[in-house]
Design brief:
Strand 3, helix 6 and strand 4 form a beta-alpha-beta unit. The protein has 340 residues and is of the alpha/beta class. The longest helix has 26 residues. Helix 6 runs parallel beside helix 8 and helix 13 packs across helix 15. It folds into 2 domains: 199 residues, Rossmann fold (3-Layer(aba) Sandwich), CATH 3.40.50.300; 109 residues, no CATH class. The structure holds adenosine-5'-diphosphate (ADP) and magnesium ion. This is AAA family ATPase. GO terms for molecular function: adenylate cyclase activity; ATP binding.
Length: 340
Amino acid sequence: MTTGPLGRDHPLALLRSRVRHALDSHGGLVLITGEAGIGKTTLVSEAVGEARRQGAPVLAGACWESDNAPGHWPWVQVLRGLRRAAGPGRWAEALEAAGPGPELLLDGTGGAGGSTGGPPMDGFALHDSVTTALVTVSRHHPLVVVLEDLHRADPDSLRLLEFAARHTWFERVLLIGTYRDVEAELPDHPLRPLLTALPAAAGTTITLGGLEPADTGALITRVHGRTPAPGVVAEVHRRTGGNPFFIEETARLWGAGAPSGAIAPGVREAIRRRLDLLPPEVTELLGRAAVVGREFRPALLAAICDRTPGEVERLLDRAGAARLITTGADPTEAPPPPGT
Ligand SMILES: Nc1ncnc2c1ncn2[C@@H]1O[C@H](COP(=O)(O)OP(=O)(O)O)[C@@H](O)[C@H]1O
Ligand SMILES: [Mg+2]
């Protein structure tokens, strides 16, 4: 049986080639986006394996949604990794070139929004200092920095990432950021302006979609140890949209004897989380729409919900932006005559 990510040959080749470039000469930023469970972490782990095998440190930081997390928290984790990887001599050399920024972050006094009040360095100086530390160490060995789940970052961490992205293009520092685009692009997401600006600073953005039916079948086989019937694969693919986490959870449930259409608790939780991000009027409308069926017409929904078509359209736009629904052609409408 194969191991490693299924159905990701192209994005994997792209990311590996950016890693190889960084080991050699050029770094910068690569973004990996997609909904929860789509395989962002899996893809990055696979691709950075090559950097590790070649002795390049992989410095990882995960963003954490908490009022107690110190400012610049993902960068604090990266700097801890950098200090370890550099060793005392090279760390001292990096600090000499960079100034106090890294240590201010490491001792918890440098982050705007940190617990100790105002930052002792302004944003630009701090960002320049941290970037210089990375670049200085990278002169000895290339670095791969992975920042996971940027949709949960503090704003200053994103500003630092954008700064570092724009200043490492000609250095052996590759920055890889992952985030859930479906959440970050919601109109009221607080990080939306900062996150939507990031792709402009990135050389490459890789957006992951669902697996194809053949890979869905292969993943069910991998989880379950038995090849599923084609009908089961088609049903699981239709219900999960090819999301690997959803497929795994569904296959486990199916393996335990539940029907292929049963909803696994992990899937229910993930969908609830996505619905919770929407205003209640939108979720209520989606609940009504789900009763109509997998496909529904907005006009019918407006009649059922006692809302104007305009209101329904506005609420459905929100659900569309969260990629919970898609718009298709109305099968009851005649196609336009040829030549129009
Ligand atoms: N391409 C893939 N092939 C097989 N399994 C995958 C693939 N991508 C993700 N998975 C599995 O799906 C689950 C969720 O993947 P993960 O990388 O954590 O998603 P994300 O980081 O986007 O939330 C993991 O258990 C992982 O092993
Ligand atoms: Mg992840």
